[in-house]
Amino acid sequence: MDEVKGKILRELQEAAGNAEWSSSREELMYKTGVSDRQVRRAIHELRRDGYKIISSPDCVGYWLGTSEEWNNFCEKQRSKGIAGMFRKTTEYDKQLRIVAE
Length: 101
Hints:
Elements: H1 2-14, H2 25-32, H3 36-48, E1 53-56, E2 59-64, H4 67-91
Antiparallel strand pairs: 1-2
Helix pairs in contact: 1-3, 2-3
């Protein structure tokens, strides 16, 4: 997995200077020679390692974002996650209490 992460990170770093560029999962699959699932897993692990890899439904692909882009991305992900938990708990008639710091 470390080799896949390295290849993906190199692809994203090479394009970091080009504001018009992002790499789709299909492109990353082709360039790394691994499956879609492996690309998604590697991106998830790179994010956990501290790399600000952004994706958006408005823009196909992934790119290394700025701190502001990363904060916006994280906020959207949190909101989406909380909304999903709320839907699941109301579907099953359960109560959910979330404490955030």
